[in-house]
């Protein structure tokens, strides 16, 4: 028995090296691959980048126009009405904050669980978090009837002698998003410092060297510094997990703390957290495929990465399916008339086709990941990830539309029809996200070089 | 005292050389590496850090401050009876101190990290040493102080080369 069993025991070194292809398995190769887009720009024509930049720039302008029109004319330009008071604005907010949740969650959770493959994806996942969370923060403000007073959420000495209502879930939300966004910036920047030092030392011309050098803070890679750095980074990861979980739980509480049928459910906070991780992972996969293709990072972002990420999405899709089923069961088993009527409306009301599409996108489509062939095909994983993102947006939308369109008072019931300004703001925000991400990949290493170098040597002992 | 800076291509070689130097009575000053090397900080006798304690203290302090704000506003400055709820609804007040406390812990930790490492420090004599720029990329540098005479330096250099050093340079102490 012994010889067979021993053969199967992989040394830690082989185990972590399998996350990098052979042609990337040296420190220098990793540095070269990751820093090439930043320091050797002539290797690319950048044509696709410029096209994407122009398109996303135009969409950003569209977002600005749409938001300006909203600010000039008020929320009446949206499809919101006196019954459906939360339309696309809040759905977009919940969707974006879900994506914004995932980067830091993935990065910190995988770090604490010693999942070495995170090294190839955590940097751009964290960047995704920053951009998505910033965009998410805009929507609640835009959706306010009087956005210019949004700062009333903060406790500050004012001539009205008023204070925020601390019992309100919206106040919790404000602090959770703000703290999370600022925390994520610190987490991301600290992870970046050693890589900025690498870029400083590799840069041939003076200006990049000075800029990267200034942001690297004079990092020398001293063993003493690494020691403190690791202590801090791990402590940050341990703090990030409860912060992220609380953030999206609070988003769930925005709904659950009400008395509306379909919202007042205790399952909402965990269900929102899983949904956030799910849509965020799907977005990470989309970005991973693009970064890998655009900057020839196949040696570092491998098919194995897509394989494991597909497994995580499969797991999350099952949890989501279970959450939906729990909602249905609760509504039926609880016996409350409003809840049961709401359930009937979900499956047979005016929005039911969207609900079935949503179930297909979130629960059915990812079941393809049971097949290894689907998990190991980058194209298949990419397509299903896009489907999941669409499905998760529909889910966020329906949570709002179903409940608000089917309130307790039948005479108040109304449907929601989006206007052109709803759509321009949604797609404009997507464009703005792409715009910021394109700038990011051109200025900052999109993969954490020091962490990939580390896993190449993991398990080596003198 | 003479400081030698030896360049290695692999972390194991660096660790071996560091141990040998220590056994021979030289002082291992520091190592400069592209990623953290397990065991190196212990070998250098890096002191245990109070970084996490600072993070805890900073986080708790700001969280308490946040709760004090809530308590002051809801209990003392503007008590308002909202549906008969207790004025000090502390469970509902926890989110603000919690979130801001975690952010404060992160910032305190960052400040402590800068204090412990002495960064930011954009200029350092080591940056002038030829080949030092590779320590952030793919080379592993070991700095040792030879405390003895001229022959000691030659011996130390020989030991480092035997351990696999590509080059050994003298640096400013």
Description:
The complex is a heterodimer of chains A (462) and B (173). With 462 residues, chain A is mainly α. Chain A has one domain: Formate dehydrogenase/DMSO reductase domain (Formate dehydrogenase/DMSO reductase fold, Up-down Bundle), CATH 1.20.1630. Chain A is built from 17 helices and no strands. In chain A, helix 3 packs antiparallel against helix 17, helix 5 crosses helix 15 and helix 9 crosses helix 10. The radius of gyration of chain A is 24 Å and the shape is globular. The N terminus of chain A is likely disordered. Chain B has 173 residues and is of the alpha+beta class. Chain B folds into two domains: 67 residues, 2-Layer Sandwich (Alpha-Beta Plaits); 67 residues, no CATH class. Chain B contains six helices and four strands. In chain B, helix 3 packs antiparallel against helix 5. Chain B is rod-shaped, with a radius of gyration of 26 Å. At the A-B interface, helix 3, helix 7, helix 9 and helix 17 of A face helix 1, strand 2, helix 3 and helix 5 of B.
Strand and helix layout:
The complex is a heterodimer of chains A (462) and B (173).
Chain A (H helix, E strand, L loop, with lengths): L1 H7 L3 H6 L9 H13 L7 H27 L14 H25 L9 H22 L25 H34 L3 H11 L6 H34 L11 H27 L8 H32 L2 H12 L3 H13 L7 H4 L2 H28 L14 H24 L5 H9 L5
Chain B lengths: L1 E7 L2 H13 L3 E6 L7 H4 L7 H27 L12 H4 L1 H23 L22 E7 L3 H13 L4 E5 L2
Antiparallel strand pairs in B: 1-3, 1-4, 2-3
Helix pairs in contact in B: 3-5
Keywords, separated by commas or semicolons:
heterodimer, A: 462 residues, mainly alpha, Formate dehydrogenase/DMSO reductase fold, 71% helix, globular, B: alpha+beta, Alpha-Beta Plaits, four-stranded antiparallel sheet
